[in-house]
Amino acid sequence: MMRAWSIPIGKYFGTEVRLHLIFFLLFALMVTQTTAKAGIAASRGVALFFVVFAAVLVHEAARGLFSPKRDKLQRLVLLPTGGVIVGESERSGQHVSFAQEARAALAGPIANLVIAGIAALILLGVAPEIKIFASPYIHSGHLARSVVWINAGLGLLNLIPAYPLATGRLLRVWLAQHPTKEVADPWQEATKRSLAYGQGFAMLLTLMGLFASNVWAMLIGFCVFVAAHIEDRSFIFQSVVSSVRMDEIMLTDFAVLSPADTLQDALEKALHTLQDDFPVVRSGDLVGTITRQKILDAVRSEGNGYVQSVMNRVIEVCQRGESLAAAFRKITVRGLTMIPVVDQQRLVGIVTLQNLSHNMALLAESRRLKKLED
Length: 374
Description:
There is one protein chain. The chain folds into two domains: about 5-245, no CATH class; about 245-374, CBS-domain (Roll). The radius of gyration is 25 Å and the shape is globular. The strands form three sheets. The chain has a four-stranded mixed β-sheet, sandwiched between helices. A three-stranded mixed β-sheet has the order 7-8-9. It is about 55% helix and about 15% strand. It is built from 13 helices and nine strands.
């Protein structure tokens, strides 16, 4: 879901950052509205777009700087209203400090408001002829003034308690720590309620923009709705993988290689299996891993050597009783495509991204049927 509507723009400090396609809609709107005004070059619309993009980057950089360490290794989807963390680690409301969450959540809006204040002071001192409070506040024909109001607008928007906006994240923590009724998982219930508030706010803002013929209000409402939808899908996914154990999903019928195998032998074995990743085992003990592509690259560059010389000796493993969510975190940190499953140091199965991508829908359906039976 995340990959279908966003494109990667890099990995920074262990966080995979992706750009949602709504940014391209925003780009098109800014350029077309700029060119519709006589005498204004399209380049000013492009410049206005990058002012918005820079404000979002400032917002997310500040949040990342003050986020707890456990949240550093995430995937982040950027939208014009801010970023959405995808694949948050397993945690419950009682394990989240309100003060820690407040620092992380409010860092972004505060950074934007500080930038807006600094820009306003500079304009008042250097170019007083640029009237900061003149309308339109944001326009490609008035880029300097737009810097002030884009940052101020993004900061103030995120102070609205609508999840997943910044203050909405604080609302989720507060709801988790002050449940209105006895529930099995206060954090799960708080997330559901916060998402409902966020989606309600998004629909209200979109309708207001529709009746007022304000395309920007509709766009902001749509962005908040999409952000809430991404959080909702991510939350459901995490709920599923947190409840699944490795021995429920692991492959138990798989091919293995020996460190003494030649690369030609390894290629022959790879021809007769659909696996892309292979555990390397000596006397039943896991000693390394190797991919089909690495075998092929080694043969092309070095000729027929041994698996032992090119295998990956740094092994990340999971115990068979661990949750699938734990495996995903390890895979994300290391950038792996396979993780071996062990029981008392003995290899008992493997989990591959290839297999998970094929079977997640089946897993979710299986879980749904079990709940219906219960």
